[in-house]
Amino acid sequence: MSGYDEGNSGGARFRTHRDTTQVDMPMAPPRPTGAPGPRDPQTGPLPVVGKAPPQRALTGPVPLPADGRSDASPMVRTVERHLDEILAAVPQPDPIELAVLDAQGLLCAEDVVSQRALPSFDQAALDGYAARAEDVAAAIVQQPVELAVVGESVAGASTPTAIGPGLAVKVASGAMLPAGADVVVPGVWTDQGAARVLVQSGPPAGSYVRRTGDDVADGDPAVHVGTPIGPAQISLLAAVGRDRVLVRPRPRVVVLSAGTELVEVSATPAPGQVVDVNSYALAAAARDAGADAYRWGILPADPRRLTEVLESQLLRSDLVLISGTFTSSGFDMVQEALAGLGEMRFRQVAMHPGPAQGFGRLGRDEVPVICVPGEPVSALVAFEVFVRPAIRLMLGKRQLFRRTVQAIAGQQLLSPLGYRQYLHGTVMRHPDGGYVVEPVGEATDALLARMARANCLIVVDEDVTEVAAGGLVTVMPLLLGG
């Protein structure tokens, strides 16, 4: 995938493929001894350790006009331009205040300033004896230092105490430190006496002591705007006294399926009918991307009821996602209903599978509506390419796209000229370093079963028609929640 430039206020720009080795993949089986390594058909053996060189096209490049159309057809758009249009149009929902536990996984939308110091008093960092560092500095095992134990401080006790020269207070972890003490001697470094204690080693001043405000001072920022809220941030928010926090909310995404051939999962399909799997798959994908997704299901065939459903879902949504068989020439009933609610554009995009894509902003609030192909594999590919980045942008994420790696192709890959090809595959770490990838299954396999076994998308650029076995190819790992 391309890199989205958030610094361009005039619209989205796109960088070239990014490469990262920070992806945890299973290990490929080692090659048998003496087996030939991966080879480039023109330059010979390829290195597989470290960062891979850029993918080299095996055919001449296909020039693209400045307006973003592909040479495959005068009306075909590039993937980048269609994505740019979507990202430029999706709204960013206003921040909302939530209970801290409900805010988990979201981005903080305010600078949370602490109204108290953490810790709020000097305290012991572990069980032992609070003492003065100068009294125990000379202590060694052969010549321990003896101190008089004048009290005990446990966690939760609020009565201040104090010590002077030659004195110690037995303390528990988290207990208030007595005035005059500047070190806590771990209990295991002593004979753990009750009235008098023999210290066998003396740590330097400040050891095992938490001073007031060491963690967060009164008036300091505790959690910044844009910080993802996880368990550590929830812990800090609770510690500074915040049970609610302002966050970027999860976008509300409604998923619908269009098609007279569709039936519900509970029904037995008649000849020519298929089960509606897309509304389930796309709703699950939207949730994995971080959205609050709602599956409405199959759109009704009655034109009046169809319009009512679309209008009602536009009122409750930040983004509407519809899968179906749409064409860029001519209108079916769903396309006509959408057109009646605003400007909806259906275009051919230079990608395979699923070049037929649609986008518009409909209804009173100009809610973004993304239409993806009805074929299940194409629908999920289109989701990865167009919908997932839009959801992450609405969430306020800085990283809109999945990270990619360069991998060695385990077998020959063919791709149509002028179209960006997305193939489901399995990527593994190569025993010699780097990654190796192979497309999933054979042509006789069921498409859904093949897709379910994949852990990545293999991306072949528009100007490449063939990647030989051993060549380099861009891979997008499909990590859950990634």
TrEMBL record:
SUPFAM superfamilies: MoeA C-terminal domain-like, MoeA N-terminal region -like, Molybdenum cofactor biosynthesis proteins. Catalyzes the insertion of molybdate into adenylated molybdopterin with the concomitant release of AMP. Pathway: Cofactor biosynthesis; molybdopterin biosynthesis. It comes from Blastococcus saxobsidens. Signal peptide: none annotated. The keyword Metal-binding applies. Residues 254-393 form the MoaB/Mog domain. Belongs to the MoeA family. Residues 1-71 are annotated as: Disordered. This is Molybdopterin molybdenumtransferase. One of its GO terms (molecular function) is metal ion binding. It is an enzyme of class 2 (transferase). InterPro entries: MoaB/Mog-like_dom_sf, MoaB/Mog_dom, MoeA-like, MoeA_C_domain_IV, MoeA_C_domain_IV_sf, MoeA_linker/N, MoeA_linker/N_sf. The keyword Metal-binding applies. Residues 27-39 have a biased composition (Pro residues). GO terms for cellular component: cytosol. GO terms for biological process: Mo-molybdopterin cofactor biosynthetic process.
